[in-house]
Amino acid sequence: MTTLYLSLDADGRVNGCGPDPAVFERAFPAPADFDPARHLSTARLVGERLVLAGPPPSVTARQARLALLEAGLLDDIETALQTLPREAQITWEYATEFARDWPLLLAVADALGLSEEALDQLFIRASAL
Questions:
Q1: Contacts within 8 Å (CB) and 24+ apart, 106-112
Q2: DSSP states of the chain
């Protein structure tokens, strides 16, 4: 198995990964359970230990919409919202931040059949946008 190396920014956040440590200014060997798709935008170096964080608790509305667009879900979300009460539509449209545990978001995700894992991945991706 090839060792994966992580690139770290000045604050210790992981901002890249690859098999060659020479391409990174600051390289750190990734632990065996590091999954780039899940941890790339959330992992942090704390001292000499890499902490693999889960999805962020919230993202901005811009980040959420860009992640949904990238995943091909934005149109589906907007269609699903049309079936909800006007109050929910207004809340979604004018929210500035989307919390991972927001009941409206969970209801829309459930209506679209998104799993908890899929929702986590959307939040992780959104946090990087």
A1: 108/77, 108/80, 108/81, 108/84, 111/80, 111/83, 112/73, 112/76, 112/77, 112/80
A2: -PPPEEEE-TTSBEEEEES-GGG-SSEEEPPTT--HHHHTTT-EEETTEEE-----SEEEHHHHHHHHHHTT-HHHHHHHHTTS-HHHHHHHHH-SEEETT-HHHHHHHHHTT--HHHHHHHHHHHHT-
**Residue 48: predicted pLDDT:** 67
> Which of 122, 20, 87 lies closest to 7, judged by CA?
20
Q: For each successive 10 residues of the chain (129 residues), what is the average pLDDT?
A: 73 78 74 75 69 80 95 93 92 93 90 87 86
Domain ranges (residues) in the chain: 5-51, 58-127
Compute the chain's Rg from CA coordinates.
Answer: 17
Rounded to whole angstroms, the Cα distance separating 44 from 77 reads: 31
Structure token pair of residue 42: 């959330």
Give the closest residue to 39 by CA, choosing from 124, 128, 129: 124
